[in-house]
């Protein structure tokens, strides 16, 4: 299996949308994505300032992706990884570690010194990220469903 990398741009995202759909509609996520929503998500993210994405190909077939964007922080620019995945059929073979190492090398070359991401503790990805050096911060993510203004006044 010949592994290559390509930078993700708006004009080459479609095959990676298919990969994302397959990975996140399968266990353990079972998200229920539709291809149009994934393509819209990717197209929107690819337009963010400081977007950077990297695709992994095995024999020219997309098998992994990583993307996110730079965010200004107190002492400089940090990189927020929004999406990272490896084809479900190929997980556990070191491809995720290989993709992340290449991604990290490229981010470092762009001047980033820190990266961060969100994941759930109850999914296998959590253990993968811990294994490759991510530390858990003492933070939480809060969510709130938006309601109509009339409902807020009731």
UniProtKB/TrEMBL annotation:
Transferase listed as a keyword: yes
Record key words, sorted: Transferase
CDD domains, sorted: NAT_SF
One Gene Ontology molecular-function label: acyltransferase activity, transferring groups other than amino-acyl groups
Origin: domain of life: Bacteria
One Pfam family from the record: Acetyltransf_1
N-acetyltransferase domain segment(s): 3-154
Keyword Cell division: no
Extent of the signal sequence: none
Transmembrane segments: none
Name assigned to this protein: GNAT family N-acetyltransferase
Organism the protein comes from: Chitinibacter fontanus
């Amino acid at each position: 299996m010949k592994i290559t990398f390509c930078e993700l741009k708006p004009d080459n995202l479609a095959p990676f949308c298919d990969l994302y759909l397959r990975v996140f509609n399968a266990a353990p996520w079972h998200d229920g994505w539709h291809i149009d929503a994934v393509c819209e998500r990717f197209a929107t993210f690819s337009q963010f300032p400081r977007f950077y994405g990297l695709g992994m190909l095995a024999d020219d077939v997309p098998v992994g992706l990583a993307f996110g964007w730079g965010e200004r922080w107190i002492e400089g620019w940090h990189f927020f990884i929004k999406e990272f995945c490896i084809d479900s059929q190929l997980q556990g073979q070191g491809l995720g570690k290989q993709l992340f190492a290449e991604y990290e090398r490229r981010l470092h070359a762009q001047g980033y010194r820190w990266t961060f991401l969100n994941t759930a503790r109850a999914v296998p990805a959590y253990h993968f990220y811990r294994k490759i050096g991510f530390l858990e911060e003492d933070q939480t993510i809060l969510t709130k469903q938006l309601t109509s203004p009339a409902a807020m006044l009731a």
